[in-house]
Amino acid sequence: xxxxxxxxxxxxxxxxxxxxxxxxxxxxxxxxxxxxxxxxxxxxxxxxxxxxxxxxxxxxxxxxxxxxxxxxxxxxxxxxxxxxxxxxxxxxxxxxxxxxxxxxxxxxxxxxxxxxxxxxxxxxxxxxxxxxxxxxxxxxxxxxxxxxxxxxxxxxxxxxxxxxxxxxxxxxxxxxxxxxxxxxxxxxxxxxxxxxxxxxxxxxxxxxxxxxxxxxxxxxxxxxxxxxxxxxxxxxxxxxxxxxxxxxxxxxxxxxxxxxxxxxxxxxxxxxxxxxxxxxxxxxxxxxxxxxxxxxxxxxxxxxxxxxxxxxxxxxxxxxxxxxxxxxxxxxxxxxxxxxxxxxxxxxxxxxxxxxxxxxxxxxxxxxxxxxxxxxxxxxx
Amino acid sequence: xxxxxxxxxxxxxxxxxxxxxxxxxxxxxxxxxxxxxxxxxxxxxxxxxxxxxxxxxxxxxxxxxxxxxxxxxxxxxxxxxxxxxxxxxxxxxxxxxxxxxxxxxxxxxxxxxxxxxxxxxxxxxxxxxxxxxxxxxxxxxxxxxxxxxxxxxxxxxxxxxxxxxxxxxxxxxxxxxxxxxxxxxxxxxxxxxxxxxxxxxxxxxxxxxxxxxxxxxxxxxxxxxxxxxxxxxxxxxxxxxxxxxxxxxxxxxxxxxxxxxxxxxxxxxxxxxxxxxxxxxxxxxxxxxxxxxxxxxxxxxxxxxxxxxxxxxxxxxxxxxxxxxxxxxxxxxxxxxxxxxxxxxxxxxxxxxxxxxxxxxxxxxxxxxxxxxxxxxxxxx
Lengths: 381, 381
Prior knowledge:
The structure is a homodimer. The first copy, chain A, is an alpha+beta fold.
């Protein structure tokens, strides 16, 4: 249990008037405790009461040894076996955490709406009922996301190492490209290169889109062989120390046409402008605007259909890891906030270009975790 | 939309007194429609009314083209964009499917408790409220699982091919074993071999446990190098045509001790007895007993801590894919039912042995999709 983070969570719960929070095996639990286990079909929930008493966990007996070692006396464990089922352990955890509400007002409990399943919700409601207390649930995702937004030195060091590993793998991947190879083959090579370079895993499945497919930002890698004249987008991510990196580079197989070169230069300028805008107190909307205006001014505004970037940390999705770099994202950002900058232009008949870096806001500007060459690489076809 | 399966679902809904079912992007949806998309952070739900009207889907506009092509006129689509959000599309789907309940009794809706998140449940409840109707939800997992239990010819053909691909990959993996290689390296090799052999994916992450680690059935593959004298358990799975295979073999690196050989012979006898017991109308409990009694009689009963097998099909978990081969599983099984048989014995100081096959009940007995050599292979150390 990370005491500093737990104390910040308790303040957050109290300021929202919540009686406690019940967490899934999730990135939020990992943030609080360092424990990285994943949801399974077996119920596992962590209970934190806003009154500061020792947290408790309901978990399968199978998982108990590892979790007990990690927590010591900083959490109480209620374990259950497949033969028993989870009901009794859950009953004890609810009694301990929310028992004071028996017969009085409902307990107000934060839960993770995007992670908790109906299975856990119904089990929680039944255990509360059996304890004579009603529960009202509130989505705790925004509270946890806000807590996680500013990364401390250790977190930033993990992200820098995650980016270093990823760039080594990306270098190998680009060197591996040959005409006739397919998107799926290159994506698989990239995934293996990320693991071989020392990552704990990928932060998402490596993505490759080439030639006409590169013009579709939502393409799924398929079996089309690379041809001379293809633009090839490679978007990939690593995990190290639990923290994600995420990079995109676009290379040309054989000499690209004039229009493809102009698109590339525009996207590179947008990436550069987006990074240059990053400083304390800037908003996601302003960074998006800095990158987007370059593309709009070049006449490609209609071909940039996505946000400029997303938060990055234990996850790669902005609902768990803000900020979102998009119109309407108006929260001023503090030093230590980490996100991607990834403008792209996708034109049917030409292809697509995306250039993505991972940055952190510093006291006087920004630092980029990724430094992979951004100039257009032309491979021999 | 598979009309025969849809009609069976409608009968099931009506016999349970449900007004309809709301499905996540899940294996159940794939079973009904052939569409294999996965849950994302964007809300996507399929509505089937028990009264037989055309089903409808709420889904992100991004996904619409592929889904529309798959359905033709057999489903209505309500799409939403990131700018709009899903509320309006969801409102229309609820009005269409459950609108008749406005102001009257609650609509009784089946949902998948182990797949649906609180995010979707709350959105569904709010859309119902906005339509003036209350909803009561019931777990539809058992209904869908029962529907899927007996596999038709096409499903069995996909499972046979999935097993064929898997066995080719397993052969390559066993040939690749060398002293000094680690569990994690071999597991990664195995995963790649499965994809290279023509699988669409793995049905779960390939598992390797060797030497002392093999004695722990819940081990996670780590970086311990293989040594002479190790028993090496390899448990892996492929997906083909959406259908899973799942095999385990245990090999010896260098000559195994006498006790290891005796354990291997016992587990092989249990696997053989389990398979031999398979015929129409047998229960999961009886198959478990047939395998388990061999192990108990040999004196290793306390070292066989898991069920004898689990259902297999679009998934590998018995809560979605019955039957469970365990005490208490007393439903008589019909021809076409598919499952694993995987007894194991795990003894500290000796190691572990598990031998797993995939079988289907036939009219007069069983057929095994897997036929990989079951005799102990001793590799030179």
